[in-house]
Amino acid sequence: MLTPAIFDIALTAFVSLFVIIDPLGLLPIFIGLTQGADAAHKRKMAFKGVLIGGVILVFFALLGDRFLELLGVGLPAFRIAGGVMLFLIALEMVFDKRAKRRENKAEELKSSEHHEDIAVFPLAIPLISGPGAIATVMLLMSANKENIVAQSAILMVLAGVLLLCLTLFLLADKLERFVGDTITHIISRVLGIVLAALAIQYILDGLKRGLLS
């Protein structure tokens, strides 16, 4: 049963993961990286890239806290560090630095002699499962550590965002003419403001839990 509390957790997870993974922002990058390739190759890159990125994110979602324990890093410290990282990403989005950096990376790879298989790098890593996405999914899971239902909802939201990425990639040829730079930049700035607020909340939660522990 979907309770209001679980719905709020799922909504927060969707906003966070949607903003960080940024399917709409990845679409023009995918189009640029696969330009000139046939339809079969594009489908292969889309499925392979999303699958690998998803496996990495699920791994850190389920085992990330144990990994931190091995390193001797507490969850409050990780929340603060993750919040700072997400805030920096939000600033890049608001001031349009993130999109330009991704576009420059795409141009570098397009000019490379070995750019045919873009599924692992840069599609899965770092575009889909970059540091920001890994930190976000670990923060969401750790915040609901004792709630299996909430964690299941987070994983379902993650699967939904990844499925959205895959759908956009598979429809890239048809969507290319409709998704312009202006629309992408507007969406990126608005979502960047939302992400900044979520990042500050992560930092405040980390400070509060750190002081109480």
Largest sheet: none
The total of beta strands comes to 0
Kindly name the structural category.
mainly alpha
Oligomeric form: single chain
Q: Calculate the mean pLDDT score and round it.
A: 84
Q: DSSP strand (E) fraction?
A: under 5%
> What gyration radius follows from the Cα positions, in whole Å?
17 Å
Which percent range fits the helix content?
A: over 70%
Shape by Cα distribution: globular
Tell me the series of helices and strands, N- to C-terminal.
HHHHHHHHHH
Number of helices: 10
Low-confidence stretches: none
Terminal Cα separation, in Å?
33 Å
Textual characterization of the structure:
This protein is mainly alpha-helical. It has ten helices and no strands. The chain has helices spanning 4-21, 23-33, 39-71, 75-94, 97-110, 119-128, 131-143, 148-170, 172-175, 181-212. Helix 1 (4-21) packs antiparallel against helix 7 (131-143), helix 1 (4-21) packs across helix 10 (181-212) and helix 4 packs across helix 7 (131-143). The longest helix has 33 residues, at 39-71. The protein is globular and about 55 Å long. The two termini are 33 Å apart. The mean pLDDT is 84.
Task: Annotate the secondary structure layout.
Layout: H1 4-21, H2 23-33, H3 39-71, H4 75-94, H5 97-110, H6 119-128, H7 131-143, H8 148-170, H9 172-175, H10 181-212
Helix pairs in contact: 1-7, 1-8, 1-10, 2-5, 2-8, 3-6, 3-7, 3-8, 4-7, 4-10
Structure keywords:
213 residues; 84% helix; globular
Report a brief summary of the structure:
With 213 residues, the chain is mostly helical.
